[in-house]
């Protein structure tokens, strides 16, 4: 542990760089041994998605790094649900949408659950969030804005906003359009008549008592802002939450950069200290456009997990958080294989390199030792071929290639085979189109077939790969081996790219591979 702490102090991996901000924030630890507070926020008007996973996971990486840097200093991760927000629009694809439409403007926690299973719409979605976080084993504490407001937990920070009303307005008004300035209020009262969260100007009647005044339908109303009778406007709400909960660290997307600036100013007005953190870059679709839930151009968590492992997604999320990255189905195979490459290297790396290895952070320093006998890419090539469209068939090939493996003894391999079969069946196989070889290519293929015929059925991948190389040199020359491998991929597999051919032939079997060559030669005429 001492070696890890020492190496972590200078490690360049971004979670350590972030965690060291907390060491500077509290050089002697937080007063009275209080835990460092990490937070992630969640808007429960929709269901948890890949962005939710992304933010909680990245925050967890920083929390783990802080634990290593301090040798186990206490910390907490709060998953905060903004369920006092007024519902602004009816989400897409919600059953019984008329229930939501009839309650627009009300706090999410005071709208009936359209699914009919929970106390409110927010309670339903909060339950989904907690189930989601539990599914992936996150260590967190759940907090609800509704509970914090109605229980009185936020009463003192609400009074603080009222006491510093002008200071908060001085921060916010310069950031607003002139028309918006006329109606802006940092406090949003809940209508005593309709229960709607009102966007109306508010005056402070008595800050210490928490009394505010506003107009609704031409009538002046005085009421308490405490106990859930009002909520704070976004940015003010964020800042107040930081102050009330003692938040030390919170990251957010680049689209909230300005919000972080304004909320940090407001936190200082309230006498608090803004948390450490950073703004991560957004994910892009295949066209390089920002992913939008409303556009539906993103990749769902369910889609990734149908074709790639959870560890591969964590690996993809870990790398370069401040760089915009494409997030679409095409990145999954590479992410899976890259994860396994880094995991394979980990045991033999010195501790300094281990701390920079993504798998160290994905597995919280407890990296499983078991490796894989073949790559996901190779499995995709196998599962894309005729007659290998199911997991059981694929396993028969794998067990011949890697004797001693089985679904029971190699559960991660078993999972990976199933994922590869899904991906190959849905995306690879339908796009394959084998072309007939040219006369020159056919001669090389006949030579390969002849030499394969002389090999035993259990010839290893390296032996086969050497034969493939020598035939390529003979027929295409040393400088055009790329052309030879392209020929093999295009005529045998129907793809412009492919695997290490020695490994593929060993996996698919010499007899089956010769059958592919025979089909290609027949197509040449």
TrEMBL record:
HAMAP family: Lys_tRNA_synth_class1. Pfam families: tRNA-synt_1f. Belongs to the class-I aminoacyl-tRNA synthetase family. ATP binds at residue 293. It is found in: Cytoplasm. It catalyses: tRNA(Lys) + L-lysine + ATP = L-lysyl-tRNA(Lys) + AMP + diphosphate. The keyword RNA-binding does not apply. A motif ('HIGH' region) lies at residues 44-52. It is an enzyme of class 6 (ligase). Its EC number is 6.1.1.6. GO terms for cellular component: cytoplasm. A motif ('KMSKS' region) lies at residues 290-294. The keyword Isomerase does not apply. GO terms for biological process: lysyl-tRNA aminoacylation. Keywords: Aminoacyl-tRNA synthetase, ATP-binding, Cytoplasm, Ligase, Nucleotide-binding, Protein biosynthesis. This is Lysine--tRNA ligase. One of its GO terms (molecular function) is tRNA binding. It comes from Sphingomonas sabuli.
């Amino acid at each position: 542990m001492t070696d890890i702490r020492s190496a972590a102090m200078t490690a360049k991996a971004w979670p350590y760089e972030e965690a060291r901000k907390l060491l500077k924030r509290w050089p002697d630890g937080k007063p009275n041994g209080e835990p460092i507070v990490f937070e992630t926020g969640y808007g429960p008007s929709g269901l948890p998605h890949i962005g939710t996973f992304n933010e909680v996971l990245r925050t967890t990486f920083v929390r783990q790094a802080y634990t290593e840097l301090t040798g186990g200093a206490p910390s907490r991760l709060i998953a905060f649900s903004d369920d006092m927000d007024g519902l602004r629009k009816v989400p897409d694809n919600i059953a019984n949408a008329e229930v939501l439409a009839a309650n627009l403007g009300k706090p999410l926690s005071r709208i009936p659950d359209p699914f009919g299973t929970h106390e409110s719409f927010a309670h339903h979605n909060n339950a989904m969030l907690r189930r989601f976080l539990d599914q992936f084993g996150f260590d967190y504490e759940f907090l609800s804005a509704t509970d914090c407001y109605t229980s009185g937990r936020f009463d003192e920070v609400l009074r603080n906003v009222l006491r510093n009303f002008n200071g908060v307005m001085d921060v916010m008004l310069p950031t607003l359009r002139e028309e918006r300035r006329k109606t802006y209020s940092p406090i949003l009262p809940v209508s005593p008549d309709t229960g709607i969260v009102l966007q109306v100007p508010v005056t402070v009647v008595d800050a210490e008592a928490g009394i505010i005044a506003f107009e609704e339908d031409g009538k002046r109303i005085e009421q308490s802002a405490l106990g859930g009778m009002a909520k704070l406007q976004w940015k003010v709400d964020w800042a107040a939450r930081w102050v009330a909960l003692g938040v030390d660290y919170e990251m957010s997307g680049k689209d909230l950069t300005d919000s972080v600036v304004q909320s940090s100013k407001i936190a200082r007005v309230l006498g608090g200290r803004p948390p450490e953190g950073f703004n991560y870059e957004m994910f892009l679709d295949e066209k390089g456009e920002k992913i939008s839930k409303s556009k539906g151009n993103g990749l769902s968590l369910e889609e990734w997990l149908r074709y790639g492992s959870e560890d591969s997604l964590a690996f993809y999320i870990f790398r370069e958080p401040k760089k915009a990255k494409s997030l679409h189905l095409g990145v999954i195979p590479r992410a899976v294989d890259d994860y396994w490459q880094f995991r394979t290297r980990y045991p033999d790396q010195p501790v300094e390199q281990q701390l920079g290895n993504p798998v160290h952070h994905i597995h919280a320093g407890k990296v499983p030792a078991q490796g894989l006998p073949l790559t996901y890419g190779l499995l995709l090539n196998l599962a894309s071929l005729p007659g290998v469209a199911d997991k059981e068939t694929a396993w028969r090939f794998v067990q011949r290639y890697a004797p001693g493996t089985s679904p029971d003894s190699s559960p991660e391999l078993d999972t990976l085979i199933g994922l590869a079969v899904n991906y190959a069946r849905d995306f690879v196989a339908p796009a394959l189109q084998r072309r007939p070889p040219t006369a020159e290519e056919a001669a090389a293929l006949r030579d390969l077939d002849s030499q394969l015929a002389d090999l035993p059925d259990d010839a290893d991948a390296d032996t086969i790969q050497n034969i493939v190389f020598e035939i390529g040199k003979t027929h295409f020359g040393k400088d055009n081996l790329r052309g030879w491998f392209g020929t093999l991929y295009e005529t045998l597999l129907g793809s412009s790219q492919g695997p290490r051919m020695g490994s593929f032939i060993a996996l698919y079997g010499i007899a089956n591979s010769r059958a592919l060559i025979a089909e290609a030669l027949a197509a040449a005429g």
